[in-house]
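Protein in question passed on here:
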Amino acid sequence: MQVSKQDLADTYNVPFKACVVEGKVASVMCSYNQVNGKPTCADPDLLKGTIRGQWHLNGYIVSDCDSVGVMYDTQHFTVTPEESAAATIKAGLDLDCGPFLAIYTDLAIRRGLLTVTDVDMALANTITVQMRLGMFDGEPSAQPYGHLGPRHVCTPDHKQLALEAARQGIVLLKNSGSLPLSTSRHRTVAVIGPNSDVTETMIGNYAGVACDYTSPLKGISRYVRTVHQPGCSNVACKANNLFGFAEVAARHADATVLIMGLDQSIEAEFKDRTGLLLPGYQQELVTRVAQASKGPTILVLMSGGPIDVSFAKYDRRVSAILWAGYPGQAGGTAIADVLFGTTNPGGKLPMTWYPQSYVAKVPMTNMGMRPSRGYPGRTYRFYKGPVVFPFGHGLSYTNFKQSLALAPTDLSVLINTNLFATKNYSTLSSNAIRVKHTNCDSLSLPLHIDVENIGNMDGTHTLLIFSEPPASVKWSPNKQLISFHRVHVVAGSKQRVKIDVHACKHLSVVDEFGIRRIPMGQHSLYIGDLKHSISLQANLKGIKN
């Protein structure tokens, strides 16, 4: 794939850099794909130059499993396998997840493509991490974590953590007032849908063995009497012959909960979706059951990615929509707790939910973030078209009010004047200062936000702070998330959240050459319905060394 310097620095490298620089990770994995004509596992500019050189990784770099083999067998990046082995190790790869390097490294050395010193360096990076883990310190049981075993996995604390994670991850997308359900008014609930009684579906992929499962049906059954109908034999939902039974159940229940969505047969590694709609006849099932339902109809969605449920969003008979993701072993308990108000939902969408029409406009071969010539762009930062639900969307059973308690309005940005003495005028270009040409430690602003719960129910609010650069900066995002904080607020009370806005990190943008700059002028911060402006001015008195 082809990726611009701007998108690499502005989007694709950002989370990896944060993991290495701020998270201090011990390992980074390079991927299968090529970026700008080079396999990532054979790109010295990326592995040695960026990850080790600029970010200072203190650990080892490992290939995605079999990607070194794919580089030779499928991508035909080199003529011989030993050339691929040499290219990866010389580029900075330390460990191969797969057999390729074990088979061909020796031949690469004998052919003079690789030196023993190159291999020793890779070995040192790998063994150093093992040493930090204490793997050479003697009897494992005598080490700090040597006593841990299977009996420490399914402890009450760990089960409670799984439940709490599921509760916090649920997002309330729509609520016309029917939620939370009442155990006194909704004594019988019809539980319908192909995901209504699933277990393993809830843990997605790349998961271990669950301690136990609570399906949505089981979780709801702990609150009220339930009537169960799957509606479809699986999430593919290729037939509607069971819909009649589902309609009868909904017609006689006090409330109906439809648990629909996807599973690993629809979306998984090596299995991409070709559309954003519910599979098969699922939409018809939701519509028909909602029409038949005597009481409120709640739609619960399980999926890893977005689903275009515009039909349900605008259907007044579907009174509420929840997204549960793949909620894990305790997912059924968490869903039921939210449905009946034991838990007040506070989750926010971590991605934009696009309409089905978006798919036709975004070829998978185009990795560009910014819109251009009929291409709509990607993510909330650049895409300006219609959405089903926006990034960061999420409702609550209570209402929160936000207000600014402390918010500075201006900041002076010092420039290293020595750069002007050497005629380095690129420091200040298009009224934007290069980040590395100022003192970032001095460019921090305190922001204090009061979050008040003005409703009748205790709740947790996820505070999202976005920044928007001056309008004159044409090559920047529309806005971007710079900070988020989750705060629990008792009904009728107030909590103060204190954050620091760092100009270099939060108010900077990347120009078309991949250079991160701080634009001068008026920046805007958005916190819910609040908007606050901060004016940045260049201080030409500068920093003197």
Observations:
- The CA atoms of residues 429 and 517 lie 9 Å apart.
- The first helix runs from residue 5 to 12.
- DSSP finds 16 helices and 22 strands in the chain.
